[in-house]
Structure formats: C-alpha cells, structure tokens
Amino acid sequence: MAIKMIKLTEEQKDCVKFRTDGELLIRGIPGSGKTTVVLERAIYLSINGEQVTPGPKVLLLTFNKALSTYIKQMVRASRDEVVEAMTFHQWGTQLLRDSGITNYRTISDEKEGFVKFAKNIIRKYGDLILPSAKVHGMSEDRSLIRFLMEEISWIKNNEIKALPQYLDAQRIGRGTQIQLTKAHRETIFDIYEKYQSILKGKRCMDFDDVALQLIDNSERILSNIRPNHVLIDEAQDLTATQLKAIKSLTMKSLTVAADKGQQIYRRGFSWKSVGIDIRGARSKYLGKTFRSTKQIIQLARSLQHHDKQLINDNEFLPLADPDTEGPLPELLISGKTNEELKTMVRKVRQIQAAFPKDNIAIIANSHDRLEEFEESLTEHGIGSIYIKSDEADFLIPGVKLVTFHSSKGLEFDHVIVTGLQEGKLPYRTMAPGDDYEAFIATERKKLYVAMTRAKLTLTLSAVAPISPFIHELDINLYR
Ligand SMILES: Nc1ncnc2c1ncn2[C@@H]1O[C@H](COP(=O)(O)OP(=O)(O)OP(=O)(O)O)[C@@H](O)[C@H]1O
C-alpha cells in the first residue's frame, strides 16, 4: 500500500471520484489498490464532500491497530492532508464516552474468567443442562467455557435480547456439531444474562458490546460528533453489528473496501443485511494486483483453489496474473522448531545481502514465537521492529516481526511466513461447536493473506511434521 505518486487506473479513479453520498463497495483482490483508493477517496471527500454535521468530515476506520498506524504513517509521509484513521473499537468507545452513554472499560482476556464465574453462579441455582462441547486437546471444562464464550458473542452479534428470540433462533454460522435443545438454550441464556450483569457490576463491557451499545443508543449519540464521510478498509473482517453501527451513524457517505478471500475472522453477513446498498454502480471491482509478482500470485492461487466454498461464492474474486515477474517462492523445511530460528537468521542475512534497502517481514503464529525470532536476530546482530505497538515504524527499511492477523492490509518487499507445521497451521484445536470445514477455510485464508503481503520474494518456512497446507500448494510453483 502506498500513496506515493501513483497513476491510478480508470477503475480506481471511478472509485475515488464516485458520488459523495450513499454507499460505495470496493471489492478487489490482494494488492489491487483498495487501501490506495480508500486513501485517495478520503482526501477527495475532505475537499469535495459535503459537511452536514460539525463532526469529523472524513473518518477512516480499520479493523486492527497495525493497519490504522500504517495508514496514518503513509499519509503523513506523502501528503499534507490529515486523514483521521482509527480502529472501530477506538472510535466506538470514544463516541460512547463523549455522548455520556458509557465510559466502561473494555475487557478481552478477562472474558473467559467472567464467563466461568457466571456459569458457576448459575450452577448454584440447580443442575446445569448444557451440551457436551469437548474438543480434542482441551479439557472438558475449558471446552465448555470456550463454547459459551463463542455462543454469547453470537447472541450479541445477532442482537438477541430476550429468551424467546434465542429459543427460536436458527444459530446460523454456529456449525452443526453441537445441537442445542430448549433446555440447553435456557441455561445458556441464564449464563449470558448473568455474565452481562457481572460485567455491568464491574463497569466493564466486552468487544461485542461496543457495537451493540452504539446501535441501541444511536439516538443518544450527539449529532455534532457523528462523522460525515466514513471509509472502512478490510471491512470483510468487521462484524455485522459493527457495520450496522457505522452505517447508522454515518451522515453522508460510506465507502467500504473488502475482499472475502481475505476474511480471517468468521463473519456471516450480507451487505444488504447490514443495510449497505451496493446495487448497480455502487459496487466496484478491482481485478489487477500491483503488489506481488506473477510467481507469488500463482502460488497463492494454487492454495486458494482448495477453498471450494469460496470459489463457488458469487462474491469470489479470481486472482489474475500480474505482469511483473520475480523469483520462484522458496520452501524451507526445518526438522525442529529450534532449527527454524537458525534457518530464519540465515534467510534474513541472505536477503539483506542482496537487497540492503528493502524491508523484510517475518510472519508468525504467536507473539511468543515472534519474541523468539527477535531474540535470535538480536544475538546475530540483526535489528528488527516488532509490529505490536501503535508506534511501530513501518516505513523504515529492515526486519519487521508481525503475526498472521496483524499482517492484514500491510505489504513488504520480502515475506517469510513461518511456523508451517502440523498442529500450528491449521491450529490443532478449533473452537468447540465450530464447523470443521469453515475452520480449515479460515486457517487457509490466514496463510493466503500472509503470502500475498509479499512484493518481490516469498519464503515459506515449514517445520516437520509440515502443515497440510504445504501439500495443497502446486509443487511446480515453488522451489
Ligand atoms: N494504479 C496503480 N499503479 C501502481 N501501483 C499501484 C496502483 N494502485 C495501487 N498500487 C500499489 O499496489 C500496492 C497494493 O495496493 P493496496 O495496498 O492499496 O492494495 P489492497 O487492495 O488494499 O491490498 P490488500 O487487500 O492485499 O491489503 C501498493 O504498493 C500500491 O502503492
């Protein structure tokens, strides 16, 4: 992504200068310029858009912090204009606070403990009638709590407020593994209500509550802080309630950039169901990638080809071959996890010797693993930047350490995707009650997103026993 001096294509210009009211959906394959267009359109709207409330004229929302930081830095480096970029969560909590609705603290890691606490309280009133949710590799109790956490999140994202609604609900998107009886649902709903009252008592809310609070209190959100023009990047990973909340609070125009092929969080919504009108000219498609070489795109396509559900979806965007050629992606296999650290240092040195001014991303499954890479690199005198904090500098050359999830929306000259090991990717345990096919598809998309971050070279680092996704790649397309 870059907003440097780029000559936009006619399709991209059409998106940038599209009418300044109502909705616009920009779909496009990785590297097709969605972020670029969103930024150009943000600047276009800041000059040409109408301002109907004193709130922010143009607001750019992203799903994660890494992307919003990246965007801010790109704009600062190349333009005088100020584009406000923040995550949905930052924006939502700020609106709730500024409108005097709530200033509750948002919990994330503590959610498991609170759900457990709620379940234990409900148990005191009588026997719990709950389904068996045991998954391989997790204790029975933990599995059940994980299932309840997901179910509570589903209840909230479907805006279910009362038991009769839940009893009638079809639980779309919750897989077929766990079937709930009426008695199960009654118990789950009791636990859900108790969980909510515990949160309230502690003046806390969870991530799902932010969007819900905005929807439920939309009339109380002060009009003078409502944004005029909102643009969302990587919108495929927002939840239905988040999109609805944004839509209901946007005064003039809403631009949404998305690619279902890069959806790495499980979301089940249609644009229509969240109130986004994408009929006719309001839906645009960018089909040419400007980022990666032909060799990288062909390999990514051979992986994506295994997602049958995606390629049969009518929103599926096929990857077209770019004109730029480059080296074949490389597969490195390490016998053990420790060996991978050494392999990585060697590979980084090799890239740095050939391309001293370029940036290199090491993508890993967890922060713990990234810390190990950081340590190894430091031991060998190689500096690196950990893309965890808000202030990570994306623009200076060098080695960047980033998780699969945070790599979304970013790009690097050279990408090394690590940890391609059975049990790590796809991860060995899926959420209890999850649909196996859907779980595997999401894990595959994580790898697809990571691979398509690369501009010039791509290295895949597998550790024995290697990830089954490696077997899905066309063997003729890597060395
Ligand atoms: N018209 C163009 N001409 C040349 N380069 C372009 C053009 N449009 C975009 N690019 C470049 O292509 C790269 C990818 O663009 P961008 O990040 O906007 O794509 P994206 O669709 O948002 O990707 P993803 O969905 O994978 O995050 C960037 O380096 C950008 O500068």
From TrEMBL:
Cellular component GO terms, alphabetical: cytosol
Record GO biological process: recombinational repair
E.C. number: 5.6.2.4
UniProt name for this protein: DNA 3'-5' helicase
Keywords from the named record: ATP-binding, Helicase, Hydrolase, Isomerase, Nucleotide-binding
Major enzyme class: isomerase
PROSITE patterns named among the record's database cross-references: UVRD_HELICASE_ATP_BIND (PS51198)
Family: Belongs to the helicase family. UvrD subfamily.
Binding site for ATP: G28, I29, P30, G31, S32, G33, K34, T35
Source taxon at top rank: Bacteria
Entry keyword annotation includes Disulfide bond: no
One example GO MF annotation: hydrolase activity
Segments forming domain UvrD-like helicase ATP-binding: 7-306
PANTHER family attached to this UniProt entry: DNA 3'-5' HELICASE, UVRD / RECB / PCRA DNA HELICASE FAMILY MEMBER
Catalysis performed (reactions): ATP + H2O = ADP + phosphate + H(+); Couples ATP hydrolysis with the unwinding of duplex DNA by translocating in the 3'-5' direction
One Pfam family from the record: UvrD_C
